[in-house]
Design a protein that fits this description.
125 residues, alpha+beta, 30% helix, 50% strand, globular
């Protein structure tokens, strides 16, 4: 894959989260793709779409800032910051997120997140 294609897909993933578009996020994955977050693993587009839609229904104001994307062939490391608001409690959450992504034939086969939500409020980077 070309560097531009990888950057585009990562941008599309961020945009899907920020707009709550579960279908758009799931479509970036291979049919048997894996979405892994701390404590959970989802396999297949349907499962990925469902968990993304559930999150979008309970959270709002998602903001993502991509800090860096490192590319090694079809393997990618992404660092981004994430903010959201829990609709029920009104609590805002900020997190720093490292994501390892594997691609095959232009689709995500594995997306694994390492999330640090215990960041100081005065964190500058």
């Amino acid at each position: 894959m070309k560097v531009e294609e990888i950057h585009s897909i990562i941008q599309q993933a961020a945009q899907a989260w920020m707009t709550g578009n579960a279908d758009a996020f799931a479509e970036l994955f291979a049919p048997d793709g894996k979405f892994i977050v701390p404590g959970n693993s989802y396999v297949g587009r349907t499962a990925i779409q469902q968990v993304t839609a559930e999150f979008a229904a309970t959270h709002s104001g998602v903001k993502i800032e991509i800090k860096q994307i490192l590319i090694d062939g079809d393997r990618v490391a992404v660092e981004w910051t994430w903010e959201d608001t829990n609709n029920e409690t009104g609590k805002q959450q900020k997190a720093e997120d490292a994501i390892l992504v594997d691609f095959k034939d232009g689709l995500i086969t594995r997306w694994r997140e390492y999330i640090d939500s215990n960041i100081p409020s005065n964190s500058g980077s």
